[in-house]
C-alpha cells in the first residue's frame, strides 16, 4: 500500500520540513498561517533555513506590465514562495523542463524561469486570452518586427481615436465605459489590419493583442471576472454609507502599453485542452497542475477577454452578453467528470519525475479521491496551506480563508513517460 504523508502549515511562524522529505543537506522552512505544523508519523527536523513569506512585487518598479499582472480566479501569485520552496525541496533547484497544462497568468513559470530554476517551460491553456498574453511575452519565436518597432506601433495604436464597433455595441456602458469600448474597437481592428497586411509576425501580433487584453482588463467594470458587470458605472464610486460601488479604474482612460518581453526564454505555448494535448507535448521533468476546482467555468468568467483575443465578433445573448462557449467548457468544472479528467491527464502526460497538483479544499473532487488517483502513480505527500480567498473589489466581500492543498507526487520509476 502506498503511504500518503500529510503536512499542514498554520500560523505566521516558521514551519520545518522533515529532513527526510527534502532534497539537499538542509531542511527548509516556510512561513504560513495558524498555530502549529504537524506531520503524520514523521519527526520534525531541527536544523533549518528561513524563506520569507512575502510574495514577489505585483508591479515592477519600472511600471512595465507583467503578463501575470491581472486578476484571475485561482491565481497562485501570492503562493509563489510556498510553491517554489515545495518544488525545489523535492525536485531540486534545477528543473530542465516544466510543464504547466493550466498556465493561466503564467505566474509560476515566469517566476521559476526568472529565478533560474526552470530552464524551459511548456505552457498550455484552454483559453486563447491567457495563451495569447503568454505567447506574446514569452515566445516562442522572434519578434517580427523587433521590440523597438513594436513600441512605436503600440504608441500609434494608443493614439487612435475611439471608433465605435462591435465592442462598443456589445460591452459599452456595461463592462467598459462607452469611450473605452470604442478604443478597444479601434485598436483591435487596427492590429488585425496590420496582421493581414503582413506587417506583424505571429508573436508580434500576440504581443499587441496581449497588451490590449491587459489594458482592457485594467479598466473593466468588474470585480476581476466577467460573469457579471457592476451596475453603477455612471455613478459615484461610493454611496453615502461608504459602500464601494465602482472601481475608480473603470472610469480611467484605456492606455495601451507593451508588457514585459522575455527575448531569450525557452518557452512553448499551446492553446487547447490539457488532456487532449498531453501526448503531443514534449517530455517534462516536472509538471505543475492547477486545474479549475469548482463548477464555475472559466470561459464564463472571462468571455469578454476571450472574445477580444479571438476577435471573431460572434452574436451574444442575455444581459451579460456572452457568446456561445460550447467548445470551451472544461470537464474539470463538471462534478461527474473532474476525477476522470485527472486520471486521464496523469495517464497521458509525458512527465519523468514529479507532478505537483494544487487543489482547493473547496474543490469538487474529494481529497480522498485525489489521493487514491495519485497513489496509483507513485509516492504522495499532501501539503496544506491556509490563505485568504480571492475577492477584492467593489461591493461587499466576505473575508474567509480556505485551504490550498499541494499534492506532491513522486512518480514511480517503472511508470514510464505515459
Characterise this structure.
This protein is an alpha/beta fold and 418 residues long. It has a single domain, classed as Vaccinia Virus protein VP39 (Rossmann fold), CATH 3.40.50. It is 29% helix and 16% strand. The protein has helices spanning 80-91, 107-114, 128-138, 147-158, 166-171, 178-196, 202-218, 274-277, 298-301, 303-310, 338-348, 367-375; strands at residues 4-9, 14-16, 29-31, 37-39, 98-100, 121-125, 267-271, 284-289, 351-360, 378-388, 401-411. Strand 5, helix 2 and strand 6 form a beta-alpha-beta unit. The longest helix is centred in the middle third of the chain and has 19 residues, at 178-196. The protein is globular. The model is unreliable at 10-59 and 391-397 (pLDDT under 50).
Q: Round the mean pLDDT to the nearest integer and report it.
A: 82
CATH-assigned fold name:
Rossmann fold
Low-pLDDT ranges? 10-59, 391-397
> What is the CATH superfamily classification?
Vaccinia Virus protein VP39
Helix content range: 25-40%
Taking strands numbered 1, 2, ... along the chain, how are they ordered across the largest sheet?
4-1-10-11-9-8-5-6-7
What proportion of the residues form beta strands (DSSP E)? 15-25%
Secondary-structure element pattern, one letter each: EEEEHEHEHHHHHEHEHHHEHEE
Please tell me the CATH architecture by its name: 3-Layer(aba) Sandwich
Amino acid at each position: 500500500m502506498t503511504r500518503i504523508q500529510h503536512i499542514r502549515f498554520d500560523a505566521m511562524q516558521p514551519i520545518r520540513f522533515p529532513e527526510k522529505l527534502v532534497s539537499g543537506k538542509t531542511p527548509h522552512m516556510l512561513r504560513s498561517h495558524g498555530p502549529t505544523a504537524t506531520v503524520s508519523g514523521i519527526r520534525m527536523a531541527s536544523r533549518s533555513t528561513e524563506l520569507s513569506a512575502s510574495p514577489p512585487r505585483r508591479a515592477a518598479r519600472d511600471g512595465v506590465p507583467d503578463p501575470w499582472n491581472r486578476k484571475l480566479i485561482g491565481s497562485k501569485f501570492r503562493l509563489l514562495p510556498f510553491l517554489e520552496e515545495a518544488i525545489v525541496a523535492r525536485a531540486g533547484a534545477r528543473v530542465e523542463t516544466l510543464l504547466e497544462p493550466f498556465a493561466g497568468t503564467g505566474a509560476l513559470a515566469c517566476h521559476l524561469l526568472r529565478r533560474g530554476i526552470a530552464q524551459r517551460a511548456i505552457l498550455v491553456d484552454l483559453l486563447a486570452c491567457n495563451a495569447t498574453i503568454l505567447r506574446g511575452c514569452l515566445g516562442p519565436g522572434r519578434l517580427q518586427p523587433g521590440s523597438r518597432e513594436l513600441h512605436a506601433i503600440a504608441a500609434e495604436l494608443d493614439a487612435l481615436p475611439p471608433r465605435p464597433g462591435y465592442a462598443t455595441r456589445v460591452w459599452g456602458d456595461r463592462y467598459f465605459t462607452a469611450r473605452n469600448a470604442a478604443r478597444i474597437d479601434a485598436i483591435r481592428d487596427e492590429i488585425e489590419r496590420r496582421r493581414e497586411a503582413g506587417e506583424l509576425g505571429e508573436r508580434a501580433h500576440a504581443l499587441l493583442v496581449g497588451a490590449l487584453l491587459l489594458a482592457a482588463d485594467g479598466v473593466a467594470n468588474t470585480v476581476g471576472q466577467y460573469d457579471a458587470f457592476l451596475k453603477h458605472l455612471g455613478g459615484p464610486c461610493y454611496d453615502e454609507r461608504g459602500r464601494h460601488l465602482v472601481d475608480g479604474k473603470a472610469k480611467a482612460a484605456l492606455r495601451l502599453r507593451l508588457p514585459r518581453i522575455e527575448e531569450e526564454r525557452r518557452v512553448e505555448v499551446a492553446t487547447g485542452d490539457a488532456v487532449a494535448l498531453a501526448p503531443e507535448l514534449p517530455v517534462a521533468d516536472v509538471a505543475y497542475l492547477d486545474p479549475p476546482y469548482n463548477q464555475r467555468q472559466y470561459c464564463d468568467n472571462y468571455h469578454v477577454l476571450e472574445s477580444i483575443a479571438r476577435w471573431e465578433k460572434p452574436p451574444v445573448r442575455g444581459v451579460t452578453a456572452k457568446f456561445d462557449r460550447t467548445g470551451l467548457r472544461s470537464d474539470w468544472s463538471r462534478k461527474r467528470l473532474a476525477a476522470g479528467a485527472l486520471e486521464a491527464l496523469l495517464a497521458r502526460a509525458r512527465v519523468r519525475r514529479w507532478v505537483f497538483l494544487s487543489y482547493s479544499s473547496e474543490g469538487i473532487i474529494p481529497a480522498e479521491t485525489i489521493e487514491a488517483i495519485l497513489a496509483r502513480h507513485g509516492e504522495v505527500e499532501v501539503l496544506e496551506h491556509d490563505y485568504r480567498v480571492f475577492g477584492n473589489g467593489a461591493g461587499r466581500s466576505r473575508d474567509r480563508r480556505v485551504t490550498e492543498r499541494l499534492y506532491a507526487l513522486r512518480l514511480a520509476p517503472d511508470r514510464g513517460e505515459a
